[in-house]
Amino acid sequence: MNFLLTNDDGIDAPGIEALYEALGKRGVWVAPKNQHSGCGHKVTTDQAIAVEQRGKDRYAVDGTPADCTRLGVVHFYPEVDWVIAGINAGGNMGIDSYLSGTVAAVREAAILGHKAIAISHWINKPRTIDWVWASHWANAVFNTLWQEDLPPQHFWNVNLPHWQSGDPEPELIFCEPSRDPLPVAFTIEGSNFFYRGEYSQRPRQPGSDIDVCFSGNIAITQLKI
């Protein structure tokens, strides 16, 4: 299989290297030059998009994750079988899919007729991510999803829990995305408002992707255009 790798954390982020390891060090990288977390499905249409080659099969794009997918499947790697975005440093569950650049990259792939997977890692602060562990479980997820049916205009959204030594090994659970809102809270300093919503305190509808991931398992949802 031919893989196109991208993300929204930027081409120098450790998550895309972990993704590359999970795929057996295969795939062409077309990823943002800079961090674009939370940019949603923004695309660049009114100015030039600069691209810098970073060695064989690696391209740093001065644009958004959706721009990277467009350039990747149309120009750099049209023979791609799967577009895979991640491993994102932070969860992308439920309503997050509308905000996430990681998810937007694979949504764009599905729009253009390609199979795609977004994979993210929830951060249970103050823990830090063990990227070796994340790569291992990403590989297990991929080996499962290669065997699953994926209809046209659908894509996979995967969220890894924040495992640490001593925790039970996670299960892979196919589930539905949460439709609950993110926590919306602000502090005010003069005329400035600062977002203070706590991700870990968001609502957990039983059986939703949030509940599955926060409970220590791997949440797999199938989303549709």
UniProtKB/TrEMBL annotation:
It catalyses: a ribonucleoside 5'-phosphate + H2O = a ribonucleoside + phosphate. Residues 4-165 form the Survival protein SurE-like phosphatase/nucleotidase domain. It holds the Pfam family SurE. Its EC number is 3.1.3.5. Coiled coil: none annotated. Keywords: Hydrolase, Metal-binding. Gene3D superfamilies: Survival protein SurE-like phosphatase/nucleotidase. SUPFAM superfamilies: SurE-like. It is an enzyme of class 3 (hydrolase). NCBIfam families: PRK00346.2-3, surE. Belongs to the SurE nucleotidase family. This is 5'-nucleotidase.
